[in-house]
Automatic annotation (TrEMBL):
One cellular-component annotation, GO: mitochondrial intermembrane space
Subcellular location: Cytoplasm; Mitochondrion intermembrane space
Region (Disordered) location: 1-29
Lineage: Eukaryota, Metazoa, Ecdysozoa, Arthropoda, Hexapoda
UniProt similarity note: Belongs to the COX17 family.
Highest taxon of the lineage: Eukaryota
Biased amino acid composition, Basic and acidic residues: 19-29
Subunit structure, interactors included: Interacts with COA1. Interacts with the chaperone CHCHD4; this is important for correct folding and the formation of disulfide bonds that stabilize the structure.
Name of protein: Cytochrome c oxidase copper chaperone
Chief location bin: cytoplasm
Amino acid sequence: MLERLGLSSIMGSPSAQTEPEKPAATEKPKCKACCACPETKKARDECVIEKGESECGDLIEAHKKCMRSLGFKI
């Protein structure tokens, strides 16, 4: 029926409607870098202070991944 009304391309497929939206690569972040990903930032910072940067690679990468997911180019 949507095809008949010319709405199929507007409405999209049902599976497309249930997927969460991801920020576009060109979309600007909605917050400042200092306020983004507070959980991963705190864990990363504590690890670096206590153990040194060389021991915290996994936490550093987790924070970078979180930042990228919000649109920051890192």
